[in-house]
Automatic annotation (TrEMBL):
PROSITE patterns: PNPLA. The active site is at S66 (nucleophile), D211 (proton acceptor). A motif (GXGXXG) lies at residues 26-31. Belongs to the patatin family. Lipolytic acyl hydrolase (LAH). GO terms for molecular function: monoacylglycerol lipase activity; phospholipase activity. This is Patatin. The nitrogen atoms of the two glycine residues in the GGXR motif define the oxyanion hole, and stabilize the oxyanion that forms during the nucleophilic attack by the catalytic serine during substrate cleavage. Its EC number is 3.1.1.-. Residues 22-224 form the PNPLA domain.
Length: 404
């Protein structure tokens, strides 16, 4: 039995006790931060289960938006042996190598002006790179299930690509490269992306897509149900739903924000017109606003869910809201800034576990929880134990003649 078929057979509701979820925010080059964290987590899993352990072996669902969608796809796209194409430790070197070509800095001032009348970057290098890496691989081939949001600018509604739907709806079984390009097509930075798929009867279906951050920059809630559809209503008030949520173990990784810097104010924003909201000092206040807002709303909701069922330890959110200057940029791909982001990713491992204050929006340390590194080490142990449990139960349920 192949790794993919074994993974598909080990249904958490049948063979395990938990449903494991990894969620990765959008954020351009700041994807280096979750990349660093995932490299550490994978190293701890390898200490427990051997050098062949991979992130995708331990999560039922990996959700990612924009740069998070790229990371999710890198970790789940299959190689010729149906194993993950990339290890977690490959993510940061990938960003260091390719970011300067995806976001060329040679003509920064000219590109800043271009963003006022068209996309800042043409996106050609990114599109060529992703097509080369992922080739003909499609969404239904990932080694574990993924959920990747985009936004259809023609229909003015989210278009969420998931392995769940790809397995039953041929029109949603897009090329992985098309999904990654689409979820990364940030307005003002890259052109919108158009592609077609065919349904089971051979009819064309068109997609006109931009960055998934417009719909869900933090995609954790999208991964909280196999279909990618969230339960309606307030989970805290619905007993049946809270019982369901109690099975989840969620690791949610942010890409950093500049909240502490407080770089905007009402006095400044009161003077902005269209151009002011779209571009200011190398940033887009409008893009910052909707990505930060959507990410925080999801985090607050997730915190409420797990607090209401007294399972706060089942949800670990790692975020840094102290970025300043260039490090808060999504596209400042200079050598120095990329190296600074690596250092930030390493430093966050040593910082205390924190949760967002719903009034200030700032992350505050949680008493007696230790550092993020210690929390991830505990998390790795939970993931390892869950995987071993599933394998044991799966083996007991199979005829003795089956060899996998």
């Amino acid at each position: 039995m192949t790794s993919r078929s074994l993974s598909a057979e080990i249904n958490p509701s049948t063979y395990g006790e938990r449903i494991t979820v990894l969620s990765i925010d959008g954020g351009g080059i700041r994807g280096i931060i979750p990349g660093t964290i995932l490299s550490f987590l994978e190293s701890k899993l390898q200490e427990l289960d051997g050098e062949h352990a991979r992130i995708a072996d331990y999560f039922d669902v990996i959700a990612g938006t924009s740069t998070g969608g790229l990371i999710a796809t890198m970790l789940t796209a299959p190689d010729e042996n149906q194993r993950p194409l990339f290890m977690a430790k490959d993510i940061v070197p990938f960003y260091l190598k390719h970011s300067p070509k995806i976001f060329p800095q040679s003509y920064d001032m000219i590109m800043g002006m271009n963003a006022l009348v068209g996309p800042k970057y043409d996106g050609k290098y990114l599109r060529k790179l992703l097509r080369k890496i992922f080739g003909a691989r499609r969404l239904n081939e990932t080694v574990t299930r993924v959920v990747i949001p985009t936004f259809d600018i023609q229909l003015l509604q989210p278009a969420v690509f998931s392995t769940f739907e790809a397995e039953t709806d041929a029109s949603k079984n897009a090329l992985l490269s098309d999904v990654c390009i689409s979820t990364s097509s940030a307005p003002t930075y890259f052109p919108a992306y158009h592609f077609r798929t065919k349904d089971s009867e051979g009819n064309d279906r068109e997609f006109h897509l931009v960055d998934g951050g417009i719909a869900a920059n933090n995609p954790a809630l999208l991964a909280m149900k196999p279909t990618g559809i969230v339960f309606p209503g307030d989970p805290a008030s619905l007993p049946a739903q809270t019982l369901h949520y109690g099975k989840y173990v969620v690791l949610s990784l942010g890409t950093g924000t500049s909240k502490v810097e407080k770089k905007y104010s009402a006095k400044m924003a009161a003077k902005w017109g269209i151009l002011g909201w779209l571009y200011r000092d190398g940033h887009s206040p409008l893009v910052d606003a909707f990505t930060y807002a959507s990410g925080d709303m999801v985090d607050l909701h997730m915190s409420l869910i797990f607090r209401s069922i007294r399972c706060e330890h089942n949800y670990l959110r790692i975020q840094n809201d102290t970025l300043r200057g260039d490090t808060s940029s999504t596209d400042k791909a200079t050598k120095k800034n990329l190296e600074d982001l690596v250092k930030i990713g390493e430093d966050i491992l040593q910082k205390p576990v924190s949760r967002v204050n719903k009034d200030s929006g700032i992350f505050e340390p949680v008493e007696n929880e230790g550092t993020n590194e210690e929390a991830l080490t505990r998390f790795a142990k939970v993931l390892s134990e869950e995987r071993k449990l599933r394998r044991q139960k799966f083996k007991l349920c199979q005829p003795s003649s089956v060899n996998y």
